[in-house]
Amino acid sequence: MVRNMFNRLYDAxxxxxxxxxSLGIVSFTAMAESTITEAEFVDQGIANxxxxxxxxxxxxxxxxxxxxxxxxxxxxxxxxxxxxxxGVDVNVAHKMVASCYLLxxxxxxxxxxxxxxxxxxxxxxxxxxxxxxxxxxxxxxxPVLLKEYGVEPTDVKYLGLSHMHADHTGNANVFTNATWxxxxxxxxAAFGELAPKLNFNPKTYxxxxxxxxxxxxxxxDVFGDGSAVxxxxxxxxxxxxxxxxxLESGPIILSxxxxxxxxxxxxxxxxxxxxxxxxTRASIRLVxxxxxxxxAKILIQHDHERNEHVPHAPDSIH
Length: 318
Ligand SMILES: [Zn+2]
Known about the structure:
alpha/beta, 5-stranded mixed beta sheet
């Protein structure tokens, strides 16, 4: 039933995409709403206009990821939501999820984000971080969930991490056979002096250096057919990135930590602990414009309420 509701939602989105498609060439009309011009996209270097034209032309179901499976890879709780929304909702209790994703394309698997570190599952009272402001909880580690689903971590061919915070890199080290895609600036931060300042935990990802690493300086078309595209959206961390996924039912943007929950999305609130808040705001405008022009649904990865309406493993989105 949940899936049916979801499919109806996506039918609505697909129709919006069709509207753009029917113009033959890309229409930047949709972008006018967000006051971002084609030239700005190019200037920002976040993704060039050509990429957006390709997105808008995606009606070809052969260029689709066959399934996107969502896993709940832990919970995040805080006594004070204003940690993410400075000055707003002070001392309001807050809960979020940490989501992980498995994409299937032909016979290949890609993982996007790896959740809270497995050892947290053994901590009865969870793991307290950020001076008690944030508590992490975990029922079942992502690698176990994957195996239960029928996929061995060593079978995963491609790994993308939105950024290097530990609730995203928690189980990254088990994907030993995966080609790892990371923005070069994020890689340099992760393995350099900036790591502790950015609250990265290198123990959660230190083995990835032995993987095949592809350092990016811009967008990257993972399967070469436009069905899954990594797009830089810096600010939360220096090389934060998002994933655009094209499914038969329509495109979805996995937005990393560009937003943490819906009220921050609606009100354009940016957490104070971001590496560069202005850069985050620029990324938000661009990704929001991308969603409008492509008709993509934005999946806010940490958002507890939104995730309740999204099918999770063993179900998939197609
Ligand atoms: Zn983060």
